[in-house]
Every structure is written in structure tokens, then in C-alpha cells.
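Morning, I've got a small favour to ask if you have a moment. I owe you a coffee for this, so here goes:

…
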Amino acid sequence: MTITIGVHASNPSLYHLYHLTRHGFAQQELEPLGESVAFHPYSNGVRTGELLSRGVIDFGGTGSTPPVTAQAAGHDLVYTAVSAPRPEHGALLVPEDSPLRTAADLKGRTVHLAIGSWQTHLIAKALDDAGLSYADDITAERSTEDSEQLLRTGAVAAWVAQGPQLAAARRTGGLRTLIRTGDVITDRSVFFTRRALAEQRPEIIYALTRALRRADDWAAAHPREAARIASADLGGTVEDWESALTALPWRIEEVGDAFLAEQQEAADIFHRTGFIERPVTVADAVARKADSPAKAV
């Protein structure tokens, strides 16, 4: 059997697991189980639930929002592990001279963000905490390559930046943080799979979790080389990538009650605002077994 791992640039653990194939972390963990490994690169992490359900991939990872929307779409998925919180992974930026001071000031404004990603969770939760609605009180538009320039010229009021784009924007100056991610959500990387694989072959999930930990350990120990890989592949300067990557925790944790509660809160907000069409019980996306794969060493 070949285990196909989904890879996209927005999930740094899976991205570096893929680009470190010379180290064979995934292969070394799966081969003793009689399994081979393949990688399936794709560009849009929002599609992860669909790709899992169609059998295109067997294992994937995103931020916090895609597994909730996938569950709402009827995909029978199971959380396997999460990263440690990433409080400095992203931020909502505004111009330095903007009159906006709090999330409540976003009412009636246009915000650029990666719709459907963890950024939707960030903005929806920040607005909800301020008594506002993601659906009714802002105009949410999908980020583009021009989002930073549109923010600087006043064409949009705020922009959620992450990773090297955030590092580059801060290095350039002229912008300030209106909402720090870690003040609103934990912003974890989230890993998930089909229920059948998680429950029938848990040893595979344990092995993949160990492989992720090994890739994370490598990236934490070699931030400059990891930055060079990302810069050559995705653009941006090595320096900005290194700033972004060193801000990440590079630690995989088990799926715990606090994480599930935060996901449930997000699901409830998404349903109230119409971002998902039906309510979701996040606890249903847990494998029916005793141990979390992230406990595997």
C-alpha cells in the first residue's frame, strides 16, 4: 500500500517533510510497516478535506478552518495531531496612520485575508468578541499579490499577513499590528485523515506523526537552510523566510480538549455567520480509540 501525503506551502511541517525527502523521514517510519510513501503537492489547503474524501491523499494538514468546513460539507475526517500554538505566525495589519484601533473599528470596512484559511477563524473570532459579525459587518475579500500595496494606498482598511509576507511588511515599515493572532486564537497547524485509515490502521498515523516530528526537529535546528528551501521554491528573501520560520514552534502535540473546544467555538461562529451551512460537532471528528497518535514517540 502507498500512503499519499498531501503537501501545500501553507502547512510548514508537511512542506518541509516533503522537501526533506533526501532524509527520508516519512519513508523510514512507514517502511517497517510494509508501506511506501508518495507526496501529492497542491496549492489550496482549503481543498484538503475534499482530497482526503476522494482518496487523492491519505493524510493532510492545514490551519484551523479547513477541517471545520470539510466536516460541515459532510466529509468524515479525524483529527490526528496539532502543532503547538503559533501566536506570531500572522497578524492583521493597518497603516500606521489608520484611525482603526480595535476590532470594533473594522465595522463597515474592507479586509483582505485568505478566505477559508485560519485567517477566517482569526477575523471571525475577533469580530465576534467585539459584538460584530464576519458576514454582516465587514467586507471580506480574498488576498492577492497586491494586498499589501492596496493597504498602503488606503484601498483596503486592513490585511491579514503571515509568514515571509508579514516579515517583509514589517521590515519595510509604515504598517502596524491591529490584531495579534495570539491574542485571539491559538492558530495551530492541524493534521487530519479519513476515519477509516485512522481507526483501521492507527499504526500508520503514529508513524506519520513521528515523521512530522522529525521534520519539525530538522527545521528548528536548521532555520537558515529551511529558509533557503522555501525562498528558492516560493519566492521572497531568505531573511524574511528565516524570520517567519523561527517564529514557529516546530512542535507536534496531541489533540486535546482545549483544542477541540476552540474548534467548536470557531464552528459555532462560522454557522452563526453563514460561513458554513450547517452546525458541526467537532468532537465527532475524533477517532474511536484510546490513544491520540500524537502520543506516539
User: Anything to note?
Assistant: Residues 202-221 form the longest helix (20 residues). Residues 26 and 211 are 5 Å apart (CA to CA). The longest strand covers residues 77-83.
